[in-house]
UniProtKB/TrEMBL annotation:
Name this polypeptide is given: Serine/threonine-protein phosphatase
InterPro entries: Bact_Sigma-Reg, PPM-type-like_dom_sf, PPM-type_phosphatase-like_dom
Membrane-spanning ranges: 20-38, 94-115
UniProt keyword terms in alphabetical order: Hydrolase, Membrane, Transmembrane, Transmembrane helix
Protein's UniProt keywords contain Transmembrane: yes
């Protein structure tokens, strides 16, 4: 994949589009204010009736039913104000203007309501299809995998109907329990295709590759092959797309082995304290191997003893904001919930905490895997520095 830096103007274009749409929504109110200015100045000889009539019609195009009603009320208030100021009450022209304004407002409200209902039905249908497509690729992890019990959770963003690119999987293999969590840059069917490619490579490689590094390399190679196919991905994904990924292995020994390619570090809950397992050296995401950063040659090991809880997640969790712009404090939330619940119950409580923090409006998709260590094949090992 090519560098995401080459597509940097795109967010600015989207920002300009939002500004333009906001200006379009303000046009009906600006017209009504222009009528007020004309009627309260020497220019009141101009006939402004058609301008006020146009206010609800324009509002119906951009503001929806509620906005149309608000714009109509504003236009009526200005019409009443100007009629009073100009002592025009009782004239046929004033009542004709109000009648025309009312008829256009009713028509605009009905049309806007019908259009909004149709768009909502279409959006709901597209979203159901998108979620179904995502569920075909992703599947809940088993409740028990070797020495760990596990749970998984995937939440779609609260806005829009485009499928995100979050991925996860956990598989019991001859080498231990192997897991992956990742996030594709971008959304839509191209992101789902990238998720399917990465997960397909992972699900096969975990059973045949002795080394965890080779599992990650197989995922990266599969993605490069798929991107090279003409027309396999939209141009936006070709410019912006890459996958941050984390691969974990839980063998019989009381450790967890990690390979992190640009992904948020997992959290290890040990004796009530949540600690991020940060890699010693940063590594590039999948698809950005040609930018000069070293690739991991071997996994990094961290103690993972009975009673510990390990959480793998995507950045939609830690980047979730409340109304004041504050990020979700995932380590603190994990410590509050603790390790006394089952993995599904833990994720349910974490889900509720996330909903409370965001007010139910997730800006990005969320994927999580949580595992609890129950048994080891050997005695305890010393913990590394930075992990109590």
């Amino acid at each position: 994949m090519r560098s995401p830096l080459r597509s940097s103007p795109r967010p600015g274009a989207r920002g300009r589009g939002r500004v333009l749409f906001t200006l379009m929504q303000a046009v009906p109110f600006l017209i009504a204010l222009a009528v007020l200015v004309i009627e309260l100045t020497p220019a009141h000889f101009l006939y402004t009736g058609p301008l006020l009539t146009a206010v609800p019609a324009l509002a119906a195009v951009t503001l929806g039913p509620r906005g149309t009603a608000a714009a109509t009320a504003f236009a009526l208030a200005i019409g009443a104000t100007t009629a009073t100021y100009n002592h025009a009450w009782g004239t046929l022209q004033v009542y004709t203007n109000f009648l025309a304004l009312g008829l256009v407002a009713v028509a605009g409200f009905i049309t806007s309501s019908a259009v909004q209902a149709r768009r909502q039905r279409e959006l709901d249908q597209v979203r159901r299809i998108a979620v179904a497509a995502q569920e075909v690729v992703l599947r809940p992890v088993p409740a028990r995998l070797g020495p760990v019990s596990a749970g998984s959770l995937c939440l779609a963003a609260g806005t829009g109907a485009r499928v995100g690119g979050d991925l996860y999987e956990a598989v019991e293999t001859p080498y231990g329990v192997r897991m992956i969590v990742g996030d594709v840059r971008g959304k839509g069917l191209s992101a789902v295709r990238a998720v399917a490619v990465a997960l397909g490579a992972f699900r096969e490689a975990v059973h045949y590759e002795d080394e965890l590094v080779e599992v990650m390399n197989r995922c990266a190679a599969a993605l490069r092959r798929e991107v090279a196919v003409p027309g396999a991905f939209e141009e936006e994904v070709r410019l912006e797309g890459f996958i941050t990924a984390l691969v974990a292995q839980v063998p019989d020994e009381p450790v967890v082995q990690l390979i992190n390619r640009g992904h948020p570090p997992p959290l290890l809950l040990h004796r009530g304290r949540a600690t991020p397992l940060v890699p010693s050296e940063p590594s590039p995401p999948l698809g950005l191997e040609d930018f000069g950063m070293d690739l991991p040659a071997k996994p990094e090991s961290y103690p993972f003893v009975p009673g510990d809880r390990l959480l793998l997640y995507t950045d939609g969790v830690i980047e979730a904001r409340d109304r004041d712009g504050e990020f979700f404090a995932l380590p603190e939330a994990m410590e509050r919930i603790g390790a006394g619940t089952s993995p599904p119950a833990f994720l349910e409580q974490l889900h509720r905490a996330l909903v409370r923090h965001t007010g139910g409006d997730l800006a990005d998709d969320v994927a999580m895997i949580v595992t609890d260590r129950h048994a080891t094949g050997r005695g305890p090992v010393s913990r590394q520095a930075g992990v109590p």
